[in-house]
Amino acid sequence: MPNCHKSRLIPLNRQIISRNSIFEGKKIEYNMSTLTDFTWVEGAEPHRQRTRDIIKKHPEVKKLIGKNPFTFLWILGCVSLQIMLAYFVKDASWWWIIGTAWFIGAFPTHTLFVCIHESAHNLIFKKTGWNVFAGIIANFPSLFPTAISFKNYHLKHHAFQGVHELDADLPDYWEAKLINNYAIGKIIWLLLYPFFQGFRTIRCIELAVFDRGVILNIIAQFTFDALIVYFLGWPALAYLGLSFLFSVGLHPLGARWIQEHYLVIDKNQETYSYYGPLNGVNMNVGYHNEHHDMPSIPWNNLPKLKAAAPEFYDQLKYHTSFVKLLFTFLFAQEVSLFSRIARKERAGVPLTDKSTPDIDLV
Question: pTM value?
Fold first, then answer.
């Protein structure tokens, strides 16, 4: 495969993108420099058509669809590891707590977030209720009850990628303007990423904020938090909280959010995969094009999808280093929170039309 992240970046503050560019085979219209606005396109997101093409040419990939109940063992292992580490640092100095959270705790917590993601797509057990249960258990070391709410918003991200009123993965306007392309702003943004992402959900329409699963998640999570404080103390709770913040924020693992949809190496490719060593410890989290193409395939089969349809994936650009990507995002002035592709409609369907299904093709 080609080495695809040595692309030359052009400073966007000196570049207005052509209004007649081609995106995924369709002529689109860009709004303006991505330092002042998102890159607006017309037409559906790229994954639906690629899914059809892959299945047409390689129908055998349907056999990769299924459930992986062994993911629950990962959940039990990572939750147990975090509780054990919280116990060992409960009497340690704050430097030890912070260092342990950054160098060790961030990894199992990020893996648990991947498990929450798997449960959101019902990829662990056959019964939906059991997946809800698995997601709630995986949520425990993260302290904040987000597993079931994440499921509700994440499925919209798949169905309506880049639609500002529906996709909570896309930054808010005020968020992008506040951070802009300043390194210190990006550092703060990554450090507080869970809070910024939480604010985005306010703008999203067509979603119930509370349902039975969300309420159960809240009760179970705060019960777990209270038990940690009662038996291990506040420093142990702080360790778990810091592990969570680092696992999704100011850490090489936090580069995952940049990797997935930010236009860092190509201004015309909407989604990127990561093929690096951290896939081995974080359950193939980097196979993001593959996941968006066929979200019913569990994490262990995503590399098999890529291997089965190389002509569809080898031509796409990708990342191989979260560390390099993190520093590129932080210090490249041509990359900002506006470096995203966005849509004002979902392929001609009004945003208020609730009849459109929220699931992908497979």
Answer: 0.86
Whether 166 maps to a domain, the answer reads yes
Number of domains in the chain: 1
> What count of other Cβ atoms lies within 10 Å of the Cβ of residue 212?
9
16 CB-contact burial (10 Å; exposed 0-12 / middle 13-18 / buried 19+): exposed
Distance CA 302, CA 65 (A): 10
Domain housing 213? 12-342
CA distance linking residue 181 with residue 264, whole number of Å: 12
Positions of the chain with pLDDT under 70:
1-34, 207-208, 346-362
* Cβ atoms of residues 170 and 161 within 8 Å: no
162, part of any domain: yes
Give the tens place of pLDDT for each residue, 227-281.
Answer: 999 999 999 999 999 999 999 999 999 999 999 999 998 888 999 999 999 998 8
SS3 assignment, position 302: helix
Is residue 356 assigned to a domain? no
Q: 361 in a domain, yes or no? A: no
